[in-house]
Amino acid sequence: MAAKIYGAERPLYDIDIDIPNDRFVDLLDAVSVYIVSGPLRYEDEYWKLYTMTLRYDGWNIDISGAQEAEAFDRKTGKWIACPTDLSRVRIDEVGGIKIPVIDKDDLVAYKSIVGRETDLSDIKELELGKSSL
Question: CB-side exposure of 29: number of CA atoms within 13 Å?
């Protein structure tokens, strides 16, 4: 969603929310009926992080721990720390709701590290600076 807020025009695939790692326990009662996986330590070819996935109103919502995330740097072939600096978010209004959104430079930085086709496409569109929401 952050990529769309900053100007990416591709369809929205899911919603990613980063929270402090120690706050998962605070959410569990409120979201338990929506959990489809986790909370657990997740690893794939791009990410190593603590996460859980919710399914709500047809959308996947990935809630991930902000401090301990690692991303696979496709340029160096190594895993690197990729925490979200929650102090650098900005507040945007989406659908009448005010939400914190990752800093644009931080978003571009992690998308540059991971470098999937979608990430590279988002970076190009973000450089245009259009807002689509």
Answer: 1
Quote the distance between the C-alpha of residue 50 and its chain's center: 12
Amino acid at the residue 122: D
DSSP code, position 2: H
Tokens coding 41:
């330590």
CA 71 and chain centroid, separation: 12
Distance of CA 45 to the CA centre of its chain: 16
Other Cβ atoms within 10 Å of 70 Cβ, number: 16
- The residues, ordered by sequence, that sit 6+ positions from 121 with a Cβ below 8 Å of its Cβ are 8, 10
Give tens-digit pLDDT for 77-123.
Answer: 999 999 999 999 999 998 899 999 999 999 999 999 999 999 999 99
Q: What is the 3-state secondary structure (H, E, C) of 5-65?
A: HCCCCCCCCCEEEEECHHHHHHHHHHHHHHEEEEEEEEECCCEEEEEEEEEECCEEEEEEE
Give the pTM.
0.86
Question: Rounded to the nearest 5°, which phi and psi values hold at 30?
Answer: -75, -30
